[in-house]
């Protein structure tokens, strides 16, 4: 029976579909919350073959790169990001094939295509790594790559995620540091436009009139844990399923087998389907402020809401996810019906047909998994403070507050030497 053979192969192939589970993500997040970034990287590498398949290479490099960046290992982090960008570029250079596997098995059969906001953030992380390595020229290259990518995105999309306010703002800072005033002005305006479009407050950092005689220290505070994707199941009636399966998202088309099923008026009981949902992760730190030499300097401001981007992107993808989910369910149900009829006719026994149908149905259910892949080592938000100090060496510290305004900890960012007219870029990570 052809339908059975196909689904047996589907089930076997499905065993190769993997990604970090919710439990794996939470275990690594616990290490991040304890600021044991080295152990988090070791955990990732130890279980690499279990957590990431070959088609998930980009995701592995992204997850590892953020942890290495948090561990203040910029060179190693950049090497991972470079590998991630290479894989991302190779994937997008090819036509997106694998639709058959996506329709018959699940979305996990395709390579991991980084979300647009994840792609944009690779330029930010590489730029920060280069700044930490005192390589401004390389950071400028990443800033140019970032704005080129975002310019292309704005031209290609009319809705959804089509620009990144924070990455544009960061690029403007890098351009200013490199003396590229026109580029800085354009990126800053794009950033402000994107902040307004998202309904987020624009960064407001006062610049003193004698700024050229002072040094500037920028402290990026990566805070919190992203909502994590997990698989959710629900019962769906065939009436709703067929509506989804006949309503393709942009760039997709109705499968002929599904059209035939719809035309035949295929009906049946409710079907259990799997789809991704987000589970929020709790964290205590809500705000932060900076001191220099023991004196209060400035509160940090939220300049990136990565959690909101994750939630918005899932909603943006949902029509396509539901279309493929419903299409798979219809195809699998058709295979069940075909297997039942073929087996019953071959054995001249309806009982054999029912058993064959049950078996094929079992294989189809076994292969249905929600795609929960994401760059989960990103912070929930990025906060920023830009302070101006006299030229010289200063002791910089960041203090953390909970939602009630209570100070619940701090971190010494060390002795920072800055010259007049110079910028120094620092970062720290909290997830508790």
* Relative helix content: 40-55%
The major β-sheet equals: 4 strands, mixed
**Element-level helix/strand string:** HHHHHHHHHHHEEHHEEEEHHEEEE
Distance between the termini: 55 Å
Mean pLDDT: 84
Net shape: elongated
The number of helices is 15
- Rounded to an integer in angstroms, the radius of gyration calculated over CA atoms is 25 Å
Give the structural class.
Answer: alpha+beta
Instruction: Count the E strands.
Output: 10
Flag low-confidence runs: 1-16, 95-106, 356-366
Q: What percent of residues are in strands? A: 15-25%
Query: How would you name the oligomeric state of the polypeptide chains in this document?
Result: single chain
Q: Main sheet: which strands, in order across?
A: 6-7-1-10
What does this structure look like?
This protein starts with a helix and ends with a strand. Strands 6-7-1-10 form a four-stranded mixed β-sheet. A four-stranded antiparallel β-sheet has the order 5-4-8-9, with no helix packed on it. Strands 2-3 form a two-stranded antiparallel ribbon. Helices cover 52% and strands 19% of the residues. Mean pLDDT is 84; it is low at 1-16, 95-106 and 356-366. It is built from 15 helices and ten strands. The protein is α+β, with helices and mostly antiparallel strands. A hairpin with a 5-residue loop joins strand 8 (392-401) and strand 9 (407-418). It is elongated.
Condensed summary:
The protein is built from 15 helices and 10 strands.
Keywords, separated by commas or semicolons:
15 helices, single chain, four-stranded antiparallel beta sheet, about 425 residues, elongated, four-stranded mixed beta sheet, alpha+beta, disordered N terminus
């Amino acid at each position: 029976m052809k339908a059975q053979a196909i689904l047996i192969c589907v089930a076997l192939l499905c065993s190769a579909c993997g990604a970090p589970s919710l439990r794996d993500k939470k275990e690594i997040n616990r290490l991040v919350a304890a600021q044991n970034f080295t152990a988090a990287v070791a955990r990732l590498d130890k279980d690499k073959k279990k957590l990431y398949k070959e088609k998930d290479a980009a995701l592995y490099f992204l997850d590892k790169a953020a942890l290495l960046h948090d561990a203040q290992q910029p060179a190693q982090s950049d090497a991972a990001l470079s590998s991630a960008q290479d894989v991302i570029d190779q994937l997008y250079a090819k036509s997106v094939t694998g639709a058959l596997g996506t329709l018959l098995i699940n979305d996990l059969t395709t390579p991991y295509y980084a979300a647009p906001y994840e792609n944009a953030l690779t330029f930010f992380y590489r730029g920060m790594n280069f700044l930490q390595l005192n390589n401004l020229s390389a950071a400028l290259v990443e800033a140019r790559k970032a704005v080129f990518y975002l310019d292309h995105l704005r031209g290609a999309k009319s809705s959804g995620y089509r620009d990144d306010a924070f990455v544009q703002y960061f690029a403007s800072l890098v351009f200013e540091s490199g003396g590229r005033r026109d580029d800085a002005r354009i990126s800053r305006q794009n950033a402000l436009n994107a902040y307004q479009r998202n309904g987020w407050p624009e960064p407001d950092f006062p610049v003193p009139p004698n700024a050229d005689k002072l040094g500037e220290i920028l402290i990026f505070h990566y805070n919190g844990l992203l909502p994590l994707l997990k698989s959710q199941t629900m019962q769906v009636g065939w009436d709703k399923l067929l509506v989804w399966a006949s309503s393709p998202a942009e760039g997709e088309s109705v499968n002929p087998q599904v059209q035939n099923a719809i035309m035949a008026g295929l009906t049946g009981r409710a079907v259990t389907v799997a789809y991704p949902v987000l589970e929020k992760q709790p964290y205590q730190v809500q705000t932060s402020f900076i001191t220099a030499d023991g004196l209060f300097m400035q509160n940090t401001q939220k300049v990136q809401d990565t959690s909101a981007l994750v939630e918005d992107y899932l909603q943006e993808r949902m029509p396509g996810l539901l279309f493929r989910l419903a299409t798979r369910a219809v195809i699998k149900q058709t295979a069940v019906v075909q297997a039942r009829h073929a087996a019953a006719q071959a054995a001249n026994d309806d009982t054999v047909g029912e058993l064959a149908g049950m078996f094929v149905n079992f294989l189809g259910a076994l292969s249905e998994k929600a795609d929960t892949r994401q760059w989960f080592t990103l912070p929930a938000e990025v906060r920023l403070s830009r302070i101006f100090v006299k030229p010289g060496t200063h002791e910089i510290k960041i203090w953390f507050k909970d939602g009630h305004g209570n100070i619940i900890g701090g971190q010494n960012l060390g002795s920072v030497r800055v010259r007049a007219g110079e910028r120094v870029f620092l970062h720290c990570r909290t997830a508790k």
